[in-house]
Design a protein that fits this description.
By secondary structure, this protein is mainly α. The protein contains four helices and two strands. Helix 2 runs antiparallel to helix 3.
Length: 94
């Protein structure tokens, strides 16, 4: 019978450890932190799309309105939106 190499044994045990780690439940606090991370790192102009996608991944009510308001405020400060007022006027929203 063919013997398994030490390197193959290491890969097998590493994969088994990885699979066990994947089975761990993510706490609600970690889920909220992940949503917050996604929102704070959303591409410029994509905040609303990222928010919709991120909130779809967690159960309703898990992310508070106050947390969303704070993250939205932070996003607006980092990447203010410019609104065209017509007639050549523009305004930055913070």
């Amino acid at each position: 019978p063919a013997r398994e190499s030490p390197a193959a044994k290491r890969r097998t045990s590493s994969m088994a450890e990885y699979v066990e780690e994947e089975d761990e439940e993510v706490s609600d606090e970690e889920k909220v932190a992940i949503v917050q991370h996604f929102l704070l790192n959303s591409p410029p102009g994509e905040f609303d799309e990222v928010k919709g996608d991120a909130l779809a991944l967690v159960q309703d009510g898990l992310v508070s309105d106050s947390m969303l308001a704070g993250v939205c405020r932070a996003d607006n400060k980092d990447a203010p939106r410019v609104v065209d007022l017509g007639e050549g006027g523009k305004m930055g929203l913070c």
